Amino acid sequence: MRKPYFKKEEGAPEPLRCIVERVARFEEVDALGIVWHGRYPSYFEDGRVMLGEKFGIGYLDFYRQGIIAPIKQIHIDYHRPLKFSDPFTIEAILHWSEATRLNHEFVLRNSAGEITTTGYTVQLLMDTDHKVLMVPPPFYQQFRDRWTAGETS
Predict the structure, then answer these.
(1) Taking the domains of the chain in order of start, what are their residue ranges?
(2) Is 33 left (phi over 0), alpha (psi -120 to 50) or beta?
(3) Once rounded to an integer, what is the mean pLDDT over residues 129-151?
(4) Residue 2 scores a pLDDT above 90
(5) Where are the beta strands (DSSP E) in the chain?
(6) CB atoms < 10 A from the CB of 52, how many?
């Protein structure tokens, strides 16, 4: 059992999840035929984008509200390699935070269901002048209200 990246806050709703299916492409592997370590942030991005679109909090949703969400922190743990043409899944998990930020966790699994890679990103919410928001903007607060009420599915 691996240690969780984010501690569950008392009374917090369950994390939101989605799964993206992918295949390791030729352009993503190194001379050894394994996925180059620098490609994993883009896999995380695939998961973040799909999760955001699924729940109505994607990059364009934020942008239309005058909010940007840059990455503040990224962490990757490599457990086993993916190889050229390997099918794999990216599970993106959004964890609740009382802070005005997005805590995403990622679990990549090969076709045998074995965990190959795990990691997380933390995104801050900022206005278009790049000022960090200390309270959730109204549209994101409405999303949080639906999340806590169990109305996000």
Answers:
(1) 16-148
(2) left
(3) 95
(4) no
(5) 16-23, 67-68, 71-78, 87-95, 101-110, 115-124, 126-127
(6) 21
Q: 10 Å Cβ neighbour count for 147?
A: 19
pLDDT averaged over the chain?
A: 95
In angstroms, what CA-CA distances link 6 with 48, 58, 96, 117? 16, 21, 9, 16
Query: pTM to 2 decimals?
Result: 0.95
Under 8 Å CB-to-CB from 86, ≥6 apart: which residues?
23, 24, 35, 110, 111
**Beta pairing, strands 87-95 & 101-110:** antiparallel
Please give the span between the terminal C-alpha atoms of the chain, in angstroms, as a whole number. Answer: 28
CB-CB contact of 59 with 49 (8 Å): yes
Q: Residue 132 contacts by C-beta under 8 Å, 6 or more apart in sequence? A: 100, 124, 125, 126
- For 16-148, which CATH class? alpha beta
